[in-house]
Design a protein that fits this description.
Number of strands: 16
Number of helices: 14
Distance between the termini: 56 Å
Radius of gyration: 24 Å
Strand order of the largest sheet: 10-9-11-8-7-12-13
Largest sheet: 7 strands, parallel
Structural class: alpha/beta
Strand content: 15-25%
Shape: globular
Length: 430
Amino acid sequence: MNSAAGNIHLLMTDLGVRARSASRAMARAGTAEKNRALLDLAGILRAQAPALREANREDLQAAREAGLEPAFVDRLQLGDKVLEQMAQSCEQVAALPDPIGEMTDLRRRPSGITVGRMRVPLGVFGMIFESRPNVTIEAAGLAIKSGNAVILRGGSEAIHSNRALAACVAQALQGAGLPGDAVQLVPVTDRAAVGELITMPQYVDVIIPRGGKGLIERISAEARVPVIKHLDGNCHVYVDDTVDLDMALKVTDNSKTQRYSPCNAAESLLVARASAEGFLPRIGAVFASKGVEMRCCPRSRALLEAVPGAAALLRDAVEADWSTEFLAPIISIKIVEGLDEAIEHINRYGSQHTDTILTSQHQHAMRFLREVDSAAVMVNASTRFSDGFEFGLGAEIGISTDKFHARGPVGLEGLTSQKWMVLGDGQVRG
């Protein structure tokens, strides 16, 4: 092991030892102390907003000078709205019931013992993320309330923002009498730190990567710690054969264009043949006005050719387009015969993230909910609602497209486990 690698190993081992120790203190922390830390953190974020924006400006300038894509730079920004939402998420998490110590499924057995389950923290989780510095606060807030410790490893492109935010968290924890080591930021940008973090099962109980497909594939392949992940957000909007076209127009537009960079933005539009003639020219006009490139099947392109301003934005879809997460003003469009083909297409090409049906038929809505194999399935609502804050989780640690241990937006419950407990008064087994 060379000197640099040895230093990284020692650094990460030290973080791991301190996180494990802090996790034991967090597991026994009371609800009042945890809520105080969260509410104090909200106040600190508001008070430190000018300093946080200044730290963020350093990252934004470096990102632009490095020629990073606009969508990537957008995810880096800590504007007033994002900072306020971060503060509100801390307050919302504080207002949620504390899951730790909850006892459920209590049953008296013939032997006289009472068997049940108790909800407990996972222990220590490692969070590896790119670009979005607000993840620092979301992860910290959920770790605090769920009684866990967390080691955060953000991307080098957000290092100044993350350091400033981590300092706010440490101040809030210490002010509430909780260990500052409960939330630690890896202080170096060396990629070797990631390799250490994902191979420390003695200190880390689960890894949660949040970033590009390359990052998540690497972690999934190399980790020796369980991973909660999602690879892509290829989200679909399906416009059914019976639908309120005005509603469908509004929801489809919001799903795609409200923001292009999040993983819950729509990337694919499926339209039932019976609705195509009435709907596609209208949504095509909206997309054309906003500069959205449309990658079309032959039938949908034929209906969109005559839309003013659309011709220059039309492309013939290729097979790869149906499974691509664009994260940009690009959408794939296909006319399908109806619900059966839509469900088949989504289950074949989708990423099991979020998909919505726009319909006036209750039976079609119920079939879509049952048969589409995704973490979040919606009826007559924008895919952009697939978010922990919008779901009332206070914040989210990420969106999981796994089926174990958590699925969809991962909030407090996703950061806990259950252990069996037995209550008796001297019973022995015969």
